[in-house]
Design brief:
- This protein has 254 residues and is α/β, with parallel strands linked by helices.
- It has a single domain (19-244), classed as Zn-dependent exopeptidases (Aminopeptidase), CATH 3.40.630.40.
- The chain is 37% helix and 15% strand.
- The chain has nine helices and seven strands; from the N terminus they run αββαβααββααβαβαα.
- It has a seven-stranded mixed beta sheet, with helices on both faces.
- Helix 2 (65-74) crosses helix 9 (225-242).
- The longest helix is centred in the middle third of the chain and has 24 residues, at 107-130.
- It is globular.
- The model is unreliable at 1-15 (pLDDT under 50).
């Protein structure tokens, strides 16, 4: 009986007690990691391709993207941290980068999707009330292309001139990454790529107060601690500095 009790407790520990974590930051940047979770979704069954009409169906998790999101956030200066929303649930149970009907065939999977996106919308709303514009960065990982960093913006449709300058200007993010030895794409906003921005970017990036990027990180980058450190050392300080222009300047109280 004692052995059985221990087994039940161990299985319960594996079941997901918290579907996502949200850390609220001080600046108008929200990092989202929807596919890196590894925990079970209690009461839900594993997604099956035959039951979900999704042409891009997969149950693979984007390995090390949770860790990457945290590494990026940690490199921001104290008092200038971004908000970070991380799904703890394995993609086997729910895909947060799909609309709800395609996210899962199980009611609990769809409910988890609804709660995750309610939290995302609420945090975007909070940031939009405080700042002139918000940058949403959807963090993913891919292994099908030998490209370190792919930025998807729906061919430039989910960004403003602010993001275009930050990404593609002579001293912008992609130029800096390329000079540091990373392979990057696209070369210009309108260039179509395989990873062009999925549901999250499409759902939230057409808001005039939100710029939305999907960043796909190649396997070589994610699995190399040295490359990760080099990458976040370029990305985070640049985002922290450029985000200052998005912060609403309040007039001093007399």
């Amino acid at each position: 009986m004692a052995v059985l009790l221990l087994l039940v407790q161990a299985q319960s520990a594996l079941a997901n007690p918290q579907e996502f974590t949200l850390s609220r930051g001080q600046i108008p940047i929200l990092l989202v990691a929807p596919h890196g979770g590894s925990q079970q979704l209690m009461g839900a069954t594993v997604r099956e391709k035959e039951k979900v009409s999704d042409p891009h169906f997969t149950t693979k998790r984007d390995m090390l993207t949770v860790e990457l999101a945290k590494e990026i956030a940690d490199k921001f200066p104290a008092g200038q941290k971004p908000s970070v929303l991380i799904s703890q649930v394995h993609r086997q149970y729910v895909d947060h980068n799909r609309k709800e009907l395609l996210s899962s065939h199980h009611p609990k999977g769809r409910l988890a999707h609804r709660r995750f996106h309610n939290a995302l919308r609420a945090e975007l709303s909070r940031l939009k009330k405080k700042h002139k514009k918000v940058l949403l960065i959807d963090i993913h990982g891919q292994s099908s292309q030998k490209v370190d960093v792919t930025v998807g913006t729906r061919e430039g449709k989910t960004i403003s001139p602010w993001s275009e300058d930050l990404l593609w200007s002579e001293n912008g993010l992609l130029s800096r990454l390329k000079k540091a030895g990373f392979t990057i794409q696209p070369d210009y906003p309108e260039q179509r790529t395989k990873y062009n921005g999925g549901f999250i970017v499409k759902e939230y990036g057409f808001d005039p107060k939100v710029d939305a990027w999907q960043i796909e990180h190649g396997k070589e980058l994610r699995f190399s601690p040295e490359m990760v450190q080099k990458y976040v050392a370029i990305l985070a300080p640049l985002l922290a500095e450029r985000s200052k222009s998005l912060i609403e300047q309040k007039a001093p109280t007399l």
